[in-house]
Amino acid sequence: MPLASGSGSARAYQAGGAALLVAIAVILTALAFEHLGGYLPCPLCLQQRYAYYGGIPLLLLALVLLRAGRTVPAAALFAVVAAAFVANAAVGLYHAGAEWKLWAGPDTCESALRPLATDDIGRMRVIRCDEAPWRLLGLSFAGWNVVLSLALAAAAAAAARAAWRG
Prior knowledge:
mainly alpha; Bromodomain-like; 5 helices
């Protein structure tokens, strides 16, 4: 069923589609920095990826539902995605604050003390949550995640509102 131009469903489809494309681009960029650039993620970095791993399929499902004329379930999914990205922005803000030494990071971001063989010590690479390995315009990966998560939350919320209004 084609979406009528200018309708709430069409606006929801545009906002939701934009959010989907941006979310895919963000997670692919994070994976490229890790696997191609050698920037290993800390535990908080990995935690911040969950919103993308969950949000991408939910956005896709919401778009399919919207296309099928199921505006209320689509609106609900868009709202769930918006909430997930707001929560993700909060985790990113916590992470960025730990990097700027505004507060302590979680204990999981420090090396665990356990008996190690001498060979293990030479191979270990401790990835700390309170040290930013890279910054662009003063923002670390975590800082950029805050900005992008808030933008994705806004787009998903706009899609939810437009879908709800039909």
